[in-house]
Automatic annotation (TrEMBL):
It comes from the Bacteria. Keywords: Cell membrane, Membrane, Transmembrane, Transmembrane helix, Transport. InterPro entries: ECF_trnsprt_substrate-spec (IPR024529), RibU (IPR025720). Pfam families: ECF_trnsprt. Probably a riboflavin-binding protein that interacts with the energy-coupling factor (ECF) ABC-transporter complex. Its main location: membrane. Belongs to the prokaryotic riboflavin transporter (P-RFT) (TC 2.A.87) family. This is Riboflavin transporter. The lineage of its organism: Bacteria, Bacillati, Bacillota, Negativicutes, Selenomonadales. It comes from Sporomusa acidovorans (strain ATCC 49682 / DSM 3132 / Mol). It is found in: Cell membrane. The gene is ribU. It is a multi-pass membrane protein. The chain crosses the membrane at residues 12-30, 42-62, 105-128, 160-184. Gene3D superfamilies: 1.10.1760.20.
């Protein structure tokens, strides 16, 4: 019973930190304005490394459930964040589980970044952008035009994915990975 309570407490604390970080998002230069960077995956990856993949997934889920009350996307943005976040956290945690040292963390975070980017590209193209179009009546031309305003290479949804979604998620993954590498060893004794 005590270990369940400790597990739930650690997940709740990390999910709270992730929720606060999710509220502190900011636009990225040379990206469409609706692609905003936040560091809410850092508590999730720290939890996943320290407690396990399920904990990381729960942290990503809880932060998105808490964030949905302040959404402007009818929950679609939170669905996207959950799918992309778990695409980063879960594979990285499974890899780190088998090699718990600095090189294992680097490999895990690099793999998580690549998998997250692939998940984001596929989910955005086949699920989320069509969902924005049908649920919010946001036409594909508006998305393309927002992308083209910052990058003239964006001419259709495929080039939007290649020149906006992929670089954005690579940048996010790299930044989250670097910060995680800097803070994880300092925080891990507290979580254990």
């Amino acid at each position: 019973m005590h270990s369940k309570m400790a597990y739930m407490t650690r997940v709740a604390i990390l999910a709270s930190a992730a929720t606060i970080l999710m509220l502190m998002d900011f636009p990225v230069l040379f990206m469409p304005t609706f692609l905003k960077l936040d560091f809410s995956d850092i508590p999730a990856i720290i939890g996943a490394f320290a407690i396990g993949p399920l904990a990381g997934c729960l942290i990503v889920l809880v932060k998105n459930i808490l964030h949905v009350s302040s959404t402007q996307t009818a929950g679609i943005g939170e669905i996207a964040n959950f799918l992309v976040g778990t695409g980063f956290v879960v594979p990285a945690a499974f890899i780190y589980r088998y090699k718990k040292n600095r090189s294992g963390a680097v490999i895990a975070l690099a793999a998580g970044t690549v998998i997250m980017t692939l998940v984001a590209a596929a989910v955005d193209y086949w699920v989320l952008l069509p969902l924005y179009q049908s649920a919010l009546h946001f036409p594909p031309e508006a998305i393309i035009n927002m992308g083209r305003a910052v990058n003239p290479l964006i001419v259709d949804l495929k080039t939007f994915i290649v020149f906006a979604i992929v670089p954005f998620n690579l940048l996010k993954g790299i930044m989250v990975a670097v910060i995680t590498l800097l803070v994880y060893k300092k925080l891990s004794p507290i979580l254990h």
